[in-house]
Design brief:
Layout lengths: L4 H13 L4 H21 L10 E5 H4 L9 E7 L2 H6 L1 H13 L4 E7 H10 L1 H8 L2 E5 L1 H17 L2 H19 L17 H13 L13 H6 L2 H4 L6 H23 L8 H10 L10 H31 L9 E3 L3 E4 L2 E4 L8 H14 L2 E2 L1 H9 L10 H10 L6 H11 L1 H5 L20 H15 L5 H7 L4 H10 L11 H15 L3 H12 L3 H8 L5 H8 L5 H15 L9 H18 L12 H10 L2 H11 L2 H6 L2 H13 L3 E7 L4 E8 L4 H11 L2 E10 L4 E10 L8 H15 L5 H11 L14 E6 L4 E7 L5 H11 L3 E10 L2 E9 L9 H20 L4
Parallel strand pairs: 2-3, 7-8
Antiparallel strand pairs: 1-2, 1-4, 5-6, 6-7, 9-10, 10-12, 11-12, 11-15, 13-14, 14-16, 15-16
Helix pairs in contact: 1-2, 2-13, 6-7, 6-8, 9-10, 9-15, 10-15, 13-15, 14-15, 15-17, 16-18, 16-19, 19-21, 21-23, 21-28, 22-28, 23-25, 23-28, 24-25, 26-29, 27-29, 28-29, 34-35, 34-36, 34-37, 37-38
Length: 859
């Protein structure tokens, strides 16, 4: 026989394309495979008299089969004797399934085999809890069903629940505990399908609900609307969970079709395509992918919320503390019982003050809320109003004065829906999504991570930890963390301005007038320190003076230093690096020196020891040639005395170009010593790019006699580690060949481009493409914003040089959502760009290149 399997699948795919619900599509696909399996089995000789039962397991058993899901079948025999006698029937059946082109996961077990798995293999036992009869002998399946149900009811339920919840915790540790990740695993991350399945397993595995899917619905839909679940949550929660499940299944089906395979990670690069295929449209306020991802986060949050409630209920019911735990009263309306905080009288009134007292008690005792208390909050959530009274505000403000616990308290408030009820300004931030690779979490999740990071900085033995421990008031920092992105949903650009206004207004409403101004200042400037450290020349005294002038008091700099560190380290795992820590620390220490009352503002001079060493080592002519650099503190800061000595020796004996390499813990420094020439920086950048060296920053120093000393801090493009010796040697060889004219740089770049031609990806349309100018006493600073593409710095520096501009300093900052490069330039006459038309010409020429690069698929 030959069945039209693809035709059956195509009909179900058509249902999906015609916007049928996710639940309807997975049921239809399950039914299609049921018919195929039944037809194949019925055609096997001896099947009509066989006592074998064909049983669907896993997702197939739950009737939630997606387009690339595994099809798991169990051939069930009533006994070992029947298993031996009907081995040939099983083998013929399985081979015919393979002949039909079905990739089936299969097992051949007896009922006793299945029952033994309860003790030996939890994963397989869970799949048996999803077992569903497909065809064959109904008597065998009924015996199996009764046996499994009895085993579940008679087993150690506490041990089962403990093991199941531990499995869930391990999965969340691996795939993400937050339901608000930029690139979630739709099956395994918090709020994903596996969390819904875990809810079902808790009830069926503990014998509280009959296992197996009913004839008209899937197992999970049946569990979510069961009496067991409805008894645990407020009205409306089960129906929201079913809608969430329906949405997630629809998304998963689209992901499988788009990938043409089993693929459960909703990657950034595919989100726009998935949104378009699901017919999301861009509106005046949101892009199609942003609308899609907000719906996704709404769905996963509904699942995560229900999963947390069921898990808490199961822990309270079966996993309470061993032995007798004393009950202790907490105020008039709360008590600590069995290690959990609960209401002394479950039906008593629940004003905001009592909940805030419970949160304080949770922090002080290290105790969680009981299911009883959380359930009371959920059922009365609509009664909570914005904090107004003096008592409410005082209790809320006190949480932020603690050096530990505010982040956990706010996370609890956010999860329970209290924070947006008490602070309405928080509501737009909840599940707010920015479609870029820089932000790994939704805005509310990121904000809570920032506060948590700030709390843990006190334990660091670093400049950040030292500054954090010295802060006069921790609540000032905590509120700055809470409000730093509060205005993003209204307007991402300049959100720090709106955020400062909101922060001041909320704090004054709460009665915290004494810190409102400082918090508003920190929110207003929370991007200022990173922008200065990562885009400006920190060896330039003007930069440090202008930065320090923003602070009326040194402690405001301390606050901003710690806030910047907490913010950057909470964006995503790739943003924070030791190099960025070093830049921020350098700016902090230099600015701190300026803000001290006794700080000297005169230009630093070469140290006596360096001068003496140079005079002993070199003659007057050699020192005179190098004098212009020795008088520049930026040069002396960039290089150690040993390196400076090496430069003078190199210039005295080199044959046109020298390449010096030094390795640090996280970065390699490549210094090029040569004579100044047009397109010099562009050629250096091109060679480095062609050798897979990502440039972090570049510093350009030129002597009066035209000798150039260019220093590049670089890392390996893929691993972001120091360069290997072999790669450094190749860079040196290529630079010499290019500068001597023996190798065409364009050839090197093209060869490199061909090497990476398969590394392509969709460009994020939200990446900023722009050019800005900023004036400096000596230079014109050009800030270039663009997509991180192959050869970016080479093309941009080539364009700037082609416009007749000389680059004296460059700072490169790569973010997950693009690049910000800053160039200190002078025109042909050694002056700044003063003419507006000339600036516009430069801007438009660079923009042409940026747009070309942004359309490239090579990264």
């Amino acid at each position: 026989m030959k069945l039209n399997i693809q035709g059956a699948r195509d009909k179900v795919i058509a249902l999906h394309r015609n916007r049928r619900s996710g639940l309807a599509v997975v049921r239809a696909l399950t039914q299609a495979y049921d018919r195929i399996v039944t037809d194949v089995f019925s055609a096997v000789p001896g099947s009509a008299t066989s006592t074998l039962s064909i049983v669907a397991l896993g997702g197939y058993g739950r009737r939630e089969l997606c387009f690339a899901s595994d099809i798991d079948l169990m051939i069930l025999a009533p006994s070992e004797g029947a298993k031996r006698d009907q081995l040939e029937v099983m083998q013929v059946f399985f081979h015919r399934l393979l002949d039909e082109g079905l990739d089936i996961g299969h097992s051949f077990r007896t009922i006793d085999d299945c029952l033994d798995l309860r003790r030996s293999n939890l994963d397989i036992w869970l799949s048996l809890l999803d077992a569903r009869f497909v065809c064959g002998d109904t008597t065998t399946f009924r015996r199996f069903s009764r046996s499994v149900q009895t085993s579940a009811m008679e087993s150690d339920r506490a041990a089962f629940v403990r093991e199941l919840l531990a499995l869930q915790d391990a999965r969340h540790d691996k795939y993400g505990r937050s339901s608000k990740l930029l690139e979630p695993n739709i099956k395994n991350s918090a709020g994903g399908l596996r969390d819904v399945q875990t809810i079902g397993w808790i009830f069926t595995g503990a014998g509280l609900e009959r296992f197996g899917a009913p004839k008209t619905r899937g197992t999970l839909e049946n569990i979510l609307t069961s009496r067991s679940v409805r008894g645990l949550v407020p009205a409306g929660v089960p129906s929201r969970a079913v809608r969430a499940l329906d949405f997630i299944l629809r998304v998963r089906n689209e992901m499988h079709l788009s990938a043409g395979a089993l693929h459960d990670t909703l990657e950034f690069s595919t989100q726009s395509k998935i949104a378009a295929n699901l017919r999301y449209r861009t509106t005046a306020t949101s892009s199609s992918v942003e609308r899609f991802m907000r719906d996704y986060f709404d769905a996963t949050n509904s699942i995560a919320e229900l999963s947390a409630r069921v898990g808490l209920w199961a822990r309270d019911r079966w996993l309470g503390p061993s032995g007798v735990s004393p009950t202790r009263r907490i105020g008039d309306r709360l008590r600590l019982r069995s290690g959990k905080i609960e209401l002394a009288k479950p039906r008593a009134e629940l004003p905001s003050t009592v909940v805030l007292e419970a949160i304080h008690a949770s922090t002080e005792c290290g105790a969680e809320f009981s299911f009883q208390l959380e359930d009371a909050i959920h059922r009365r959530l609509r009664q909570f109003r914005p904090l107004r009274s003096k008592e409410e505000s005082s209790l809320f403000l006190e949480l932020f004065k603690l050096h530990r616990g505010a982040a956990d308290s706010l996370r609890l408030m956010n999860r329970l829906g209290l924070l947006e009820r008490w602070l309405p300004e928080w509501r737009p931030l909840v599940r707010f999504f920015q479609h870029n690779q820089y932000h790994f979490y939704t805005a509310d999740e990121h904000t809570l991570n920032v506060l948590s990071s700030a709390e843990h900085l006190r334990d660091e033995s670093s400049a950040f930890g030292e500054a954090c421990r010295a802060l006069p008031r921790f609540d000032t920092l905590s509120f700055a963390c809470l409000f730093h992105d509060i205005a993003k949903p209204d307007r991402i650009e300049d959100h720090e301005v709106g955020g400062a206004r909101i922060a001041a207004a909320v704090l004054r409403r709460l009665g915290a007038n004494d810190i409102a101004e400082d918090v508003a200042f920190l929110v207003r400037h929370h991007l200022f320190m990173e922008q200065t450290a990562f885009r400006r020349n920190l060896s330039d005294p003007t930069t440090v003076q202008e930065f320090a002038s923003r602070f009326q008091r040194p402690d405001l700099l301390d606050y901003l230093f710690v806030l910047t560190r907490a913010d950057l380290s909470s964006v995503n795992s790739n943003v924070w690096t030791e190099w960025k820590a070093a830049l921020l620390t350098e700016l902090y220490h230099k600015s701190r020196a300026v803000l001290r009352p006794d700080a000297a503002v005169s230009r630093p001079q070469p140290s006596t020891s360096l001068v003496s060493r140079l005079e002993r080592t070199f003659g007057p002519e050699e020192l005179a040639a190098h004098a212009s650099l020795l008088e520049y503190d930026g040069y002396r800061t960039a290089f150690s005395p040993d390196e400076i000595v090496g430069h003078i020796r190199t210039v005295s004996s080199f044959d046109g170009i020298a390449v010096l390499v030094q390795h640090w813990t996280d970065v390699t420094e490549v210094t090029v010593v040569t004579r100044d020439a047009p397109f010099l920086l562009a050629r250096c950048c091109g060679v480095l790019s062609a050798n897979d060296a990502n440039i972090i920053d570049a510093q350009i120093f030129t002597r009066d006699d035209g000798i150039v000393i260019d220093k590049f801090r670089v890392v390996e493009a893929v691993t972001h580690s120091v360069l290997s010796e072999e790669r450094c040697q190749k860079i040196g060889e290529d630079l010499r060949e290019v500068f001597a004219g023996r190798t065409d740089l364009a050839h090197l770049i093209e060869r490199h481009r061909r090497k990476w031609k398969r590394k392509t990806g969709r460009r994020n349309p939200n990446i900023r493409i722009d050019v800005e100018f900023e004036e400096h006493p000596l230079f014109t600073i050009i800030d270039v914003f663009g997509a991180d593409t192959l050869g970016f710095l080479y093309r941009v520096t080539e364009t700037i040089s082609g416009l007749g501009l000389s680059i004296h300093f460059a700072k490169i900052s790569t973010r997950g959502d693009g690049i910000v490069d800053s160039f200190y330039v002078l025109d042909r006459n050694g002056g700044r760009l003063e003419d507006a038309k000339r600036k516009e010409e430069v801007k438009q020429k660079i923009l042409v290149v940026l747009r070309e690069l942004s359309e490239s698929t090579l990264t």
